[in-house]
Amino acid sequence: MEFEYTDQLLAALIPLGLTVIFHGLGMDVVRRCYKRFRPHVLNARYIGLRAFFMIGIVAIMLVTHFFGVVIWAGFYFLAGILTSAQDAMLFSMLSYTTIGAPHTLHGHWIGFGGFEAMTGMLMFGWSTAVLAAVVQKIHAIEE
Question: Which residues span the membrane (predicted)?
Fold first, then answer.
């Protein structure tokens, strides 16, 4: 008996791989921003500059995650799994964030959203680790 999700897992490697590549690029942008603006954050007299810097870092991460959602939604739509781009975006947003979509995929693709949810959890974990490292360095600056 063939494992039920083998084909789905293999198909998931496409959006998963693209998501990981794009997320890595986004986290590299965060790293470069930190490196570029570190002297300004170090010498900031006002906490507002540090807050603005952190808002920028979080915004980069949010955009990175949004593009992860777009990658998966694009796959759903282009593969014909969902026939509406709007439905694909909604399903993807709810799956990626692990909220859970109000409907399920049908037929051969019934469990495919779970692979997106697993990918989303890992990407959020990656972002959390990067954000924690940045915050730790900023607090170390203040001491």
Answer: 12-30, 51-79, 109-135
